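Hi support team,

I'm filing this because I wasn't sure whether my run with benzoyl coenzyme A finished correctly. The job status page said complete, but I'd like someone to confirm that the output block is well-formed before I use it downstream. Pasting the exact inputs I used:
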Amino acid sequence: MYTTDLSGKQQADKIAEDPALVAAFEARVANDDFIEPKDWMPEAYRKTLVRQISQHAHSEIVGMLPEGNWITRAPNLRRKAILLAKVQDEGGHGLYLYCAAETLGTSRQQMIEALHSGKAKYSTIFNYPTLTWADIGAIGWLVDGAAIMNQVPLQRTSYGPYARAMVRICKEESFHQRQGYEIMMALCAGTKDQKRMAQDALDRWWWPSLMMFGPPDDNSPNTAQSIRWRIKRETNDELRQKFVDVTVPQAEAIGLKVPDPALSWNDARGHYDFGDIDWDEFYAVVRGEGLVAKERMTARIQAWEDGAWVREAAQAHAMKREAAKLAAE
Ligand code: BYC
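And here is everything the job wrote out:
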């Protein structure tokens, strides 16, 4: 369910699908209609969506951890209030996305188990440590900036509940990106040490941010089919290029240097050329070898176990209300 491999059952589902239903589904997608939870859909389309949406949800939830580390160490009350609100927003994004994935027939419990057992992925970016306050600026500016680039087209993804969740998420991400850039602006306008901290954060977060968009198109097993189904509206490389084009001038505007000697504006292409990404590092992080991957998963599992009593209490309360309602009828 969470990988590109098709199991025996999925293969059988594929073979068994009625060609008339498949043709009607494809015509609707080609017409840019939204597919809704009760509509017929090919099994492989459903599986691809569960994989992508649940991984997206996991990224939002795991993504709370690197920034959460800095809530108690924010430099002043204003910064602390903003960071708290941002981290809460990420929790909300995770919840909308888990709900969207649940409409495809997968339970929250199954998705969480897949995350905790290592079967489901989450974005590589969250396996890097946040060493200084400038990292909080860099995450907002670069990581949320990359997320917006990827998520704006997802507002037009073909599955209705995913598209609608993305509309609200994108509004909040745009505020997140600006708060991060504003932290970087303040550091760059500060002392020499503060500016050095900002440059160091950019140096460490630049390449991992480019990796967020996923492998290059010629090595991306899911892109072609996802584009055909209009789940993905733009490819990994197209989005990565857009991100570089938008972000380089932002770095220059505050006097920071993007850590890529090969970076140069290409007049003929109308885009920046940039250096080679270290894909060995990307795949190592995907395999779970990121610098703080173990800490992230330990923290998630601990939070899930610590929260068991809240889930149990909410369930007991819901059952009591249901029983009272039945008794009153
Ligand atoms: N990290 O065929 P491909 C946030 C996997 S959170 C890990 O190109 P696809 C935020 C990929 O899953 C926002 N794994 O795949 C939160 C696949 O493996 P499986 C996160 C990656 O799905 C808190 C394999 O590599 N955004 O903004 O067509 C604080 C081959 O890749 C990664 C989303 O999740 C990666 N970076 O395209 C601050 C966006 N890249 O699943 C900020 C929604 C690839 O076949 N997701 N893989 O075993 C997507 O748009 C797409 O799923 C991706 C990958 C572009 C990520």
